[in-house]
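We both want to read discrete structure tokens more fluently, so let's practise on a single case. Once you have written the record down, we can walk along the chain together.
***
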Amino acid sequence: MCILNVFLVPHTHDDVGWLLTVQGYYETQVRNILDTTVAALQANPKRKFIYVEQAFFTLWWNDARTTDAQRNAVKQFVNEGRWEFIIGAWVMPDEACTTYGGIIDQMTLGHQFLLNTFGVRPTKGWQIDPFGASSVTPVLEKLAGFDAHLIDRITDKDTYQNSQRLEFMWQGVPALGTKGQIFTEIMGGGGYCDWLGQFNFENDPVNPSNVAKYGQQFVNMAQGRSNWYKTPNILAEWGCDFAFQNAAPMFHSMDQVVDWLQSNALTTHVNVSYATPSQYYDSVWQYAEKQNIAWPNTDQQDYFPYLASLWWTGYYTSRVELKGFVREGEATSHIAEPLFSVGNSIYHLDSKSTFDAINQLRVANGYAQHHDGVTGTSVPEVVEMYKNYLIDGINVALKSAAVVLNQWIMKGPTVGSLVPGGDALLSIANGQTVAVVLFNGLGWSRSDVVVFPVNRSDLVVVDSNLKPVPYQISPATGGNITSSYQLFFPAFLNGLGYQTYFVSAPSQEIHQPPQFQPLVEDTTIENSVLSITYSQSTNRISHLTNKKTGVSISVDQNLLQYRSIRSGAYAFGPDGPATPISNSPQTAIIKGNLVTEIVTQFPASSDSNYAKQTVRLYSNQGNPDIEEFAEIWFDIGPLPSHIEVVTAFNTSIDSQNLLTSEDNGFQFMKRTYNWGTGIESNYYPIIYASFINDPFAQLSVVAERSHGVSSQANGEIEVMIHRNPDMGDGFGPGLTDTTRVYPGLRVLLDKPEFAFAGVRRQSYLYNFPLSAFTSVTTTSDWLKSFNTAGSLLQGDLPANIHLLSLNALDATSKNVILRLAHIFDLDEDPVLSMPVTLDLSKIFSQPIAQITETTLTANQNLSTATIITINPKDIRTFLIQFK
């Protein structure tokens, strides 16, 4: 009979916020875990331990109460292979609501700490608690140098166990081939707490009289799992949430069980020892190689949605306000990071204080990637913690960015300095001028219509050559805008560049802005690309046409609501199909030279009005960046109890009930409708974009934060905008959300063969908006003191290559992490899906002294080539130094 080798892996799963704040968990539980586990490993050299969340470990490492002896002990354990850092990221990230850039950044934060502190590079994934599994996470881990990936929470695990399919080679992004393929294991049984559930010892410590009972119980559990796997190796993950708060008695009891099992291995045929995942996988692979075991391949599959008695599809939308701050934090990093990286290299600023500000935002963004962070599944106090960390991080990062930008554009003695945002425009007085300096964090030139709240209607806009710029001042329509008016004007910026505009107020207010008019007949609004027809009888959109390609569809866009009966923070459980919020929406239109707005109120009753939307259509001489989409801004809430609001587009597209959405804003996945499993089982995450199509037309929606998306009927696509179940689903904190939220969508229509170019580009333009910095000045003074335009690039990056990262490695080394991502998949576009060859030495306007290609998190060098070819869906990472 074959001996079963059981690898007993002591672990703790420490949520970086959930029922307590980060600091609350650290002080009451995590510090005890690390203190007592270090002592337990010192007491017995056979014991081992793994740890995941560097957000907590760095708190402990830097805690004044942690002794040098404890730190040195951990270093010794790591060197001996008795303490392994698994994943090694800042948190164990969510996989549904996160972007691929957000996941990478928090991985890098943790990996760089481990490299600098211990000289180690994590190689094993351990995604045991996220609610479903993305196809992108294993690919990112493989690009980071990992060789194994572990997941737990998936639907229908029994099917995989019974057919020995818990182990496989996962190729989540087929375009990458074996470069993105990784050995993956689904954790068997009930999950990552199974073994601790049987071997807790808290109420019945092991002693000579009961050790045989525990030993036989262990044997039975191991043998019961032996048929699930292709090799005689079993991973016994001994731990759970915040386990080992008093490690000594736990290890003392388990030591006796392990000793009994080892002494009885010849009769039980079960061999047990403390181990790490690396030891376990080495044994699995060695056996498989000897026995010529071939692992099955899984291509372009993910594991959404997740079913655990209820369908966990509500968290795709839970806490919409927080989800907006998370995306804003990532967008702000895309502004502040490159300014600091290049600006510090050129101007040698006070790098320590500026870097500390940048790092504060990195940490805040990292916390938010946690699977109870961006998901909105924490208690309200913790939601506020994430939000406040993000707000503070965004503010200090933008202030530091303003300092660097001010230094960069300076050309002589200065008469002013930049501050983040457009507040100066709110209080502009008669005769004053405000310099508006816009910065573009993307690697492509772009056009945008920028919008500022203002309190007067007589402003004038000119460019840096003092030539008039077309602009529009309209009554404020956004629900989160408290000003009287909004100022719109178009801006063009080079990639990674800045551009200056001047907004002035005359000596007295003389301009009368356009006013809203009721919709009294069928009305068509259009620019040179799109045409939108509103029906006067319904006060809703009835037709949408792309004038350039001739695609035209009928569409009924409406705001609907589901009523919750079994929903919570995690699960979505409606009582039936969605119904209209209002049978009598009220619509008004305002037409201007630059933007036409149609505002619709959806009164639920005479005394309940919690839903409003504004549709904007921009016009700017046929510029596709500005004219190829309709923009919808929602103003939703506070919602009544048990209400979940969606916007639905019912169209004439024959989509065959097929929806396409993205994993982590990176990999499109086709979603076939699951008949007979309910409304909620057909919801999926939308991160950047989702669409429905047929051979003739594709309707795409682009989001600026994560939501749930579904297609509940042929030709229909709906996005959940806000939810207030005001109840629990039995899986943790309930969800009561009475916030008023203002999310947005961009809607595109095109032929399917042309659609991907627009969808991909708009995904990045929308999620990485221009950042504004302002200063009260005079045009003459500003032109004497500052340059008005510039770029950190020699020219645009190719349209299919995204400048994913330009981040300083640290405050002092001058090393900068450069990441370039090919954002197109195979066969999405005849041109943009092709490989791209670049000369890295010719990308930036500042000369480069050194280029080294590395793994994804910049913790291992790969090559020094400067001319590279980037294939579809590949992400390449480099350490560079500017001269």
